[in-house]
Design goal:
Blueprint: H1 2-39, H2 43-67, E1 72-74, H3 78-82, E2 88-91, H4 98-105, E3 109-113, H5 124-130, E4 133-134, H6 138-150, E5 154-157, H7 175-183, E6 187-195, E7 214-223, H8 226-229, H9 234-256
Parallel strand pairs: 1-7, 2-5, 2-6, 3-4, 3-5
Antiparallel strand pairs: 6-7
């Protein structure tokens, strides 16, 4: 009986949190960011302030989910993440809130978002105000990534390009490798674990697991890309680098038992 009541409560609490997230996006887009545009004339400074605003908003949202009992969170390396600047942060992507959790720890975060999110009424204003990068134009994206890293931002990229499917082998796209090779920046590899799994691509928000999930994010290591820069063929270097990243993350996930389906 208690488990049923607890499960029902967490479904309602999850719905509440998603409502807060959507309303918060509208408040930022329709009220706060227009005020910032009014008082901050310099476009670069305005983007910096907007990104910090999103960082603080996401930090509040993570605290809200913890407070209402939707998630446990374990971020042992948050100080190291907060201090990172001018790096390409890569990670696996097990849940919908991964990027929210990462940005909540990164005051100078930038990220590559799907072009389709510009049509999302809750997120369009946020993306436009922060200047987060879009993958609509691959050639322009590489230039924008280089400029963002040079300015000291931490660039968040999920090499899979979409959320991880539990029980299915990882498949990394070459976008992350191409950006690293073009900019000459090493990878700052992180590992995200969500147990039991929830908010995957195959699950709706209301399909909460029987137990409260724990989202953990830890720093793994810096991955040196210099050997790949010596390759004569850029496409071959990107292919080999992507394959090495896949192998590395497969080993990490196997060690942590995250290749298993939900229990």
């Amino acid at each position: 009986m208690w488990q049923q009541l607890n499960h029902g409560y967490r479904v309602l609490a999850t719905g509440f949190c998603f409502s807060v997230f959507g309303i918060g996006g509208l408040v930022l887009s329709l009220l706060l960011f227009p005020v910032q545009r009014l008082f901050i004339q310099n476009a670069t400074k305005r983007r910096i302030v907007a990104r910090y605003t999103v960082h603080r908003s996401f930090k509040f949202f993570i605290s809200l989910m913890r407070l209402v009992g939707v998630f446990h969170f374990n971020f042992p390396d948050k100080k190291q993440l907060a201090a990172s600047r001018g790096k390409i942060l890569i990670a696996n992507h097990p849940s919908l809130i991964d990027v929210v959790a990462l940005i909540s720890m990164l005051p100078h975060a930038d990220c590559v978002v799907k072009a389709q999110l510009f049509r999302n009424p809750f997120m369009r204003g946020v993306i436009q105000s922060t200047g987060y990068l879009t993958n609509a134009d691959p050639d322009l994206l590489l230039q924008d990534c280089a400029a963002s890293l040079k300015s000291g931002n931490t660039l968040i990229i999920f090499p899979e390009g979409t959320r991880t499917t539990p029980g299915v082998a990882l498949h990394f796209q070459r976008g992350a490798a191409n950006i690293a090779l073009r900019t000459g920046c090493n990878f700052f590899a992180c590992f995200i674990q969500c147990k039991p799994t929830t908010l995957t691509k195959q699950e709706a928000w209301y399909q909460v697991p029987a137990q409260r999930p724990t989202l953990s994010i830890q720093v793994l290591k810096e991955i040196d890309i210099q050997p790949f820069l010596q390759q004569e063929s850029a496409s071959l270097a990107a292919r080999q680098l992507s394959r090495e990243l896949e192998t590395f993350y497969h080993q990490v996930m196997t060690t942590h038992g995250t290749t298993e389906s939900r229990t």
